[in-house]
Design goal:
Elements: H1 14-18, H2 65-84, H3 97-125, H4 129-167, H5 175-178, H6 181-204, H7 209-237, H8 241-266, E1 269-275, E2 282-284, E3 289-293, E4 300-301, E5 313-318, E6 321-326, E7 331-332, E8 335-336, E9 340-342, E10 348-351, E11 354-360
Parallel strand pairs: 3-4
Antiparallel strand pairs: 1-2, 1-11, 3-5, 5-6, 6-9, 7-8, 7-10, 10-11
């Protein structure tokens, strides 16, 4: 007996097959177009052993060194002023012991808090709590030590400058003398000395002599600019705590911005993050060996990517040449790195979903 559920047999003729049109073949590695501005870290059609396909992303201003260091310097200066201001005495009160100590310590407090804020800003941008703790543990005691030492040197410079002003017939104890541009220059010179302490600590916190050298240059420039504007701002804002707060904040801002600009202007070799969570940030290659990995102890900490090893690779500076060594999958301009490879300016380095442009300054 036949099954009542049986269906008529499906028949396909040669004519039916001839009429079928197949879609055009997609070349290996080709990508489906994506909307402009969309983030794209890979493609299902990409070879399993090849690099992820990345789309370069627009960098954020918050990841620019001059910006976040400028903000950090401002905040640090205001915090230091807030701690020291209650102990500060003006005018004749400075001659008392408590007034003298308050006036003496407010500058080291401001400088130490700026050292701390510069270190924290770098760590926050890099998303590393471990580095924040390590850098803070170094920057606070070193900031106090160096700021006290440079306070003495800066005080001598300031007194010499005021001595020249007095020799020119300027009454340095009067408001007219405070408004005289010659006394502004004396204060500016003193702050150039004070600020050098923050630049030194900036390098020490990251164990880099060259970073410290750039930090000192930037801090001296910023301290000079901020110190030059301190008296005019005080005059405009009126005497007292508000004028000092504005003056110190301006010095902190100028120092942070100047350090960031000097670092960027004098850098020799660096990595620019083209894709990934840190897109837009640049990592200047200060050290002979720069580690890359998912461990927070790495010099370049790459987070939120489980494919990246704790110690994934190393960038090594050997004289004028730069090499990358890999412990995990690393691609340079699309080619896998086998053990190590020399880098050329413009190379695209891919580690997981992160992409970096290696760049170096042209040598004459």
């Amino acid at each position: 007996m036949a099954n009542s559920d049986d269906k008529p047999a499906l028949k396909i003729t040669l004519e039916d097959l001839a009429s079928v049109e197949l879609p055009a073949a997609v070349p290996a590695g080709a990508m489906t177009p994506v909307a402009a501005g969309a983030k794209q870290y890979g493609n299902i059609a990409a070879p399993a052993d090849g690099p992820a396909v990345v789309t370069e992303e627009k960098g954020s201003i918050f990841l620019q060194g001059w910006f976040y260091l400028g903000v950090a310097g401002t905040i640090g200066a205001l915090v230091g002023w807030g701690i020291g201001e209650p102990f500060f005495k003006e005018g004749a009160a400075v001659r008392s012991l408590s007034g003298f100590i308050g006036a003496l310590l407010i500058v080291p407090l401001v400088l130490t808090c700026m050292c701390l804020s510069f270190s924290l800003a770098e760590s926050i941008v890099e998303r590393s709590a471990r580095k924040a703790i390590q850098r803070s543990a170094l920057s606070v005691p070193l900031g106090l030590i160096f700021s006290l030492v440079f306070l003495i040197a800066g005080g001598l410079v300031y007194n010499v400058g005021l001595g020249f002003c007095a020799a020119m017939g300027i009454d340095i104890r009067s408001m007219a003398g405070y408004k005289n541009p010659a006394t502004w220059i004396a204060r500016s010179a003193a702050w150039m000395v004070f600020a050098a302490a923050a630049g030194i600590v900036y390098g020490f916190a990251d164990s880099s002599v060259r970073k410290g050298r750039y930090g000192v240059i930037g801090a001296i420039i910023g301290g000079g600019i901020g110190g030059l504007a301190f008296n005019p701002i005080s005059v405009a804002a009126g005497s007292g705590a508000p004028s000092r707060a504005i003056g110190f904040a301006l010095i902190g801002l100028a120092m942070g911005v100047a350090i960031g600009i000097v670092e960027s202007a004098l850098k020799d070799r660096w990595l620019y993050v083209a894709s990934g969570p840190l897109a837009g940030k640049q990592f200047i290659l200060y050290k002979p060996m720069t580690t890359i990995g998912s461990s927070q102890s790495s010099d370049i900490y790459l987070f939120k990517d489980t494919s990246i090893l704790p110690q994934h690779g190393v960038i090594e500076l050997r004289g004028a040449q730069t090499f990358i060594r890999s412990a995990g999958p690393v691609f340079v301009s699309g080619a896998p790195v086998r053990n190590q490879r020399a880098l050329q300016s413009g190379d695209l380095i891919q580690v997981g979903r992160y992409a970096f442009h290696f760049r170096e300054r042209q040598r004459n």
